[in-house]
Amino acid sequence: STPLIEYFDKIRVTIRVGDKRILRESTM
């Protein structure tokens, strides 16, 4: 796998985790 693809995968996971965190804060 190319480093670029791994880099974008990390960004995608980070954005997904951030979305979950924001949703959790907005519901509480």
Report on this structure.
The protein has 28 residues and is an all-alpha fold. The protein has one domain (1-28). It is built from 1 helix and no strands. It has one helix spanning 3-27. The longest helix has 25 residues, at 3-27. The chain is rod-shaped, with a radius of gyration of 12 Å. The mean pLDDT is 90.
Please outline what is shown here:
This protein is mainly alpha-helical and 28 residues long. It is 89% helix and 0% strand.
- If helices are DSSP runs of H or I spanning 4 or more residues, what is the number of helices? 1
Total domains:
1
Give the N-terminus to C-terminus distance in angstroms.
40 Å
Task: Note the beta-strand portion.
Answer: under 5%
Overall pLDDT: 90
User: Which spans have pLDDT < 50 for at least 5 consecutive residues?
Assistant: none
Radius of gyration: 12 Å
Quantity of strands, as a count: 0
Secondary-structure content class: mainly alpha
- The coarse overall form would be rod-shaped
**Biggest sheet layout:** none
Question: Secondary-structure blueprint of this entry?
Answer:
Layout: H1 3-27
Which features characterize this protein?
28 residues; single chain; 1 helix; mainly alpha; rod-shaped
